[in-house]
Write a structure and sequence with these properties.
49% helix; 455 residues; Rossmann fold
Length: 455
């Protein structure tokens, strides 16, 4: 795995030792000898993970961690504090400062590399989401969410443990900050995790007759639980299994006996990270939807329709299947805007789109072509089916007044409809042109009617 690791320590020997270990595993290593130098490097050079010493002159590692996590440009970078401090209060202080993990010197090569690989893998997944979300933000499609201020509290946590003394202790520790559910069966836990929107799953490795790592692996293989953070609870002698879990996609771990404040800090970190990733995914999904759909009506936009229509025409021609195009224009739409305002016009367009969606088949493609013009693409529909749909829609629009001005006014609206059927060799622009010509004849002949280009 190629990744850039920033090693921060004021002792040159420590820096050289970590640099040698990581370089041997083909990581790119950047070094800093002070907290301020580390901040400067992160500001100008993308880093995938920071290995940070605590005891440094001037600015200690806790302060460096806090500053990196408070900056929207760097708060997503995983930070592992590596120090000789080994008290639970020290670990909690580091985690509360925003650190993703806390390793005590001397650190074994196995533990170090497992942690670095696990966190850089997570960082790279997050980076992809961030780039897509930032692209949408720069294009003006969405607002880039900011999770720096998320407190990581009030999460929904699933504890998977079959020992009452163990899970009750976890429940008591978390109950004031999170909603905690308990599942004693690992098999049932997978179903619960898939069916419920949890922020974290805590899994005990102490099951007597079940390998809990199998549950972790299964959770990573299912679409519904792939992004659910997993924190495992293990005995001190289970280090090898913990490292194996990190390779399988486990996000974090705690060794017994569980220290309450450390548990709270680690849970808070995972919940916060989950919400940040969820917010990025939501922004990416919004970007994709908004790039394909019309913001006012929710129907597909013209760009998507033209691209998709070419594909549908090719499939129809290859299979010798029919395909129909219905082009619709709302009659006398400009006077609605002029006489009642653009809010009334927007209300008519939204309601019109809803009636269109209720009148077509599930396989049909409904699009806003521009202004008050709409197009319906109907795969596997011959002229008789397209004509029935066009007439049904004309009656549905004209048969029930449109409510505008918060329901205080009712407007009668009619539509003109043009229909064109696929002919051999048709391209998107040619079949659209024929449908548009049929629509023009419908408008010329008095509006509020359906006309086919075969008529």
């Amino acid at each position: 795995m190629s990744a850039r690791v920033l090693v921060v320590d004021d002792v040159l020997a420590n820096v050289k030792l970590l640099e040698a270990r990581l370089t041997a595993e083909y990581f790119e290593v950047v070094t800093a000898m002070s907290g301020q130098e580390a901040l400067d490097i992160c500001a100008r050079t993308p880093c995938d993970i920071v290995l940070l010493d605590v005891m440094m002159p001037g600015m200690d590692g806790f302060e460096v961690c806090r500053r990196l996590k408070a900056d929207p440009a760097t708060h997503h970078i995983p930070i592992v504090i590596i120090t000789a401090l080994d008290q639970p209060s020290d670990r909690v202080k580091g985690l509360e400062a925003g650190a993703d993990d806390f390793l005590t010197k001397p650190v074994s090569d196995l533990a170090l590399l497992a942690r670095v690989r696990s966190l850089t893998r997570l960082k790279m997944m997050t980076d992809e989401l961030r780039m897509r979300a930032i692209s949408g933000h720069q294009a003006g499609i969405n607002a880039l969410g900011d999770s720096v201020l998320d407190d990581g509290l009030n999460g929904r946590v699933l504890v998977v443990d079959d020992r009452a003394a163990s899970y009750e202790r976890i429940q008591i520790a978390l109950r004031d900050s999170h909603k905690v559910d308990v599942e004693t069966s690992p098999q049932e836990a997978l179903f619960r995790a898939a069916e419920t929107d949890y922020d974290l799953m805590i899994v005990s490795l102490g099951f007597a007759d079940f390998d809990a790592l199998r549950l972790c692996s299964q959770a990573r293989s299912l679409e519904r639980t792939r992004n659910l953070p997993i924190l495992v609870i293990a005995e001190p002698e289970d280090t090898a299994r913990v490292l194996r879990g990190l390779d399988l996609g486990v996000n974090d771990y705690l060794l017994r006996p569980i220290e309450r404040n450390e548990l709270l800090a680690r849970v808070m970190t995972q919940v916060r990270r989950k919400r940040y990733a969820d917010r990025l995914r939501t922004n990416v999904q919004m970007s994709m939807e908004l790039a394909l759909t019309d913001g006012l009506t929710g129907l597909y936009n013209r760009r998507y329709m033209e691209t998709h229509l070419e594909t549908l025409l090719e499939k129809a021609e290859d299979g010798g299947r029919p395909l129909g195009i219905i082009m619709i224009d709302i009659d006398h739409f400009k006077p609605i805007n002029d006489n009642y305002g653009h809010d009334a016009g927007d209300a008519v367009l939204r309601e019109f789109a809803a009636r269109v969606q209720a009148s077509v088949r599930g396989i049909d493609l409904s699009c806003r072509y521009g202004g008050e013009e709409f197009v319906i693409v109907m795969p596997d529909a011959d002229l008789s089916i397209a004509s029935v749909v066009g007439e049904r829609l004309r009656k549905k629009i004209g048969g029930l007044p449109f409510s505008v001005s918060n329901g205080q006014r009712k407007l009668d609206v009619t539509i003109s409809v043009g229909i064109a059927m696929r002919q051999d060799g048709d391209k998107a622009d040619t079949i659209i042109k024929r449908a548009d010509e049929a629509l023009y004849r419908a408008k010329r002949d008095g509006r509020n009617r359906v006309v086919s280009d075969a008529a």
